[in-house]
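Hi again,

Forgot to attach this to my earlier email, sorry! This is the prediction with benzoyl coenzyme A bound. I've pasted everything inline since the attachment limit keeps bouncing my files.
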Amino acid sequence: MYTQAMSVGPQDQAAKLQTAEEQQRNQAFEARIDAGDFIEAKDWMPDHYRKTLVRQISQHAHSEIVGMLPEGNWITRAPTLKRKAILLAKVQDEGGHGLYLYSAAETLGTSRDQMLDALHTGRAKYSSIFNYPTLTWADIGVIGWLVDGAAIMNQVPLCRCSYGPYARAMIRICREESFHQRQGYESLLTMMRDGTDAQKAMVQDAVNRWWWPSLMMFGPADKDSPNSEQSMRWGIKRLTNDELRQKFVDATVPQAELLGITLPDPDLAWNSERDHYDFGAIDWNEFWRVVGGNGPCNTDRLQTRVKAWDDGAWVREAALAHARKRATQAQAA
Ligand code: BYC
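Structure tokens for the complex follow:
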């Protein structure tokens, strides 16, 4: 027994060496994180850091392209040419955000096909917010104001994410989201200022339906967020879900007052001791139901994405055939 325990074979020695090497790499990695360095695609990183980033960035990319659907629903019904042009540009921007983000995630060694397969087979998530329907034109303004507003609040700190390619993608995305938020708010202001009573009521109804789902976008409460602690330590997330949610409420309440609408929360009140707004309890059962695939539009959203992927097969094949032809021509030249 004793001799067996003492004898260290070549394999054990290699494992020990690897562990020591891994430890050193890990320490160097953590030191870079602590120093505020950006981690780049070719740098060594722990597996869990890589996996966390692929999970978050790909979910973010999926949210952008699924997020095109509720708004796309209103392109043909926008009330004026100006509003149609703005909406078209916005939806196109969301597609572009998806592309930057898929590209950022690809630098971590996961292919776009793998990520899309995970979305299409229900293994990857996308933001809960896009499983709600857009029932009236006012929903489009409210999505700009509240959904893009929540997105900016969440995404500005991601411009300082420790992973360089994600942080850089977020800088451009945030600039565009800021335009999205303003156009939504301006469209609501116009309806509230110049609209008929029915149009004003339509804005209030849309706000009533989107307020709570917008607060849910920030994710579960910190105490129920399994990923936050590690992601904060690694500088992937810079603020927690609850911190961001509070910042969003604080910024949005005065905007609602200026608009002349009410927010559907009887517990919403300024708390001068905390210097923040207090707000009511979020229905976490609804949140988990929607995240789990049982929201009002989950099935429809996923089916639409799968159909778009299937219908686009010929485009991908044509693009690859063209690339092959160009490569062959370049070789021959
Ligand atoms: N919906 O431990 P937690 C946009 C999941 S796009 C669905 O706190 P984490 C826009 C979470 O993934 C908006 N699932 O996780 C586009 C985790 O599940 P897994 C998207 C959610 O990652 C077009 C579990 O719950 N923005 O703005 O530390 C038009 C536990 O959560 C949600 C981004 O993706 C949710 N709301 O924090 C307009 C931003 N919340 O993966 C606008 C980047 C949580 O363990 N992402 N879950 O199975 C993030 O900042 C973070 O990933 C989150 C979640 C704050 C969302």
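The two ends are 70 Å apart (CA to CA). The chain has a mean pLDDT of 95.

That should be everything now.

G.
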